[in-house]
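Field reference: sequence -> structure
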Amino acid sequence: MPDASSSTGTSSRRGHNSKRPGRRVALIAMYPIPDPAMPELISNHGLRMIEATLRAASIEGLDLHVYDLH
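Structure field:
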């Protein structure tokens, strides 16, 4: 018999069904190992556009963290 919690969107980890309150998002920009043939600065506009879109959406309980691992 399939787990009934999978159809309701609840978690059955550790033997209990519960939803986590709020929304957590972590955006991580990672860069390749430096190579002399690559430009010195790689733009992260895509990451910033996603961040701006999430913030503009005014999602209740949004916990947004942005990490730029340069």
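Note: Residues 1-12 have pLDDT under 50 and may be disordered.
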